[in-house]
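agent> fetching stored inputs for the zinc ion docking request
agent> found them:
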Amino acid sequence: MKVYCPYCREEKEYIIETREVKEFRGKEIDTYENVAMCKTCKNDLYVNELETENSKRIYEAYRQTENIIKPQDIIDLRSKYDISQRELTAILGFGKMTINRYERGGVPTKSQSDYIKLLIENESKFIEKVKEAYSKNNITKKTYEKIMSKENYEECNTNNLQNLIRKCITNNLSRTPDIYNGYKLLDLDKLENIISYIASQVKNLTVTSINKYLWYIDMLSFKEQCVAVTGLTYEHEKFGPTIDGKNYNTLMILNNKYVKEETENDYGTTTQIVSKKNYDLNCLSDDELEIINKVIKLLKNKKVTDISAMSHLEDGWKKTKRYEKISFEYAMNLSID
Ligand SMILES: [Zn+2]
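agent> prediction call returned; pasting tokens
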């Protein structure tokens, strides 16, 4: 490898020496640099690629010790609100090319980095800055409105959708305690914990099966203690008792404690409920947990079709018509015990 040596005044072979770098911007760091040295005169030479790599490495070490934000953090912030480098610079009140430089790998000062980090982590602080920039005419109305619409959209999408679904389920399924919910008020948190627990104990738990698990648990509980566990209402459907009004579909959109996963195989798509294993069984009494475990033990090694067929032998299914709510009266003749 050759490069022009200003000392020898001609192209010379060079060697690379690795040296420790212990300090940058007055901060202690621990890294190294590769320096080109003229083979003849032993002076340090400037090799562009080496210097680029060195500064990258040193910046990275400095970033880590000082916990400085990365270029990608800034890019992510911009893409979240769909704003340009210039728009972000205007919002932050930085010099013209600052954001451009940081995104290309330039290292922000610690205080600028902390400032940007605060705005990334704290959305309301960022929005405050946007409003301020707009009031000072630093950003256009168009930019301002774009960011505001993104912000509303985000909020609506992430936090509120799950809450909305919860409200929806509670509205659909809550009824005053009567013979159709086993004299129990629906408790959605408890229900999620139970589903998560069952999913953690049962391999390939399908949506069809979870309906039967819950029905058997509630019926058995009603038979033994005259009160159901979950407070769900069930109806007669083709494949057996299911949660009233097809609300099992809505229940499967919740994702706090379990998720619905679809896998493709040779026979088509199969759906299964996968536990996040974060269930809390403290919401259950010892008797309730015993009943749940009993039903799990009874059904866990059965195929979906067998579980369906089994439920078809129960009075609760035999003595009701399609889409009719299933009364807990039938619990008295439940075949399992
Ligand atoms: Zn030389």
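agent> quick read of the result: Residues 141-173 form the longest helix (33 residues).
agent> awaiting further instructions
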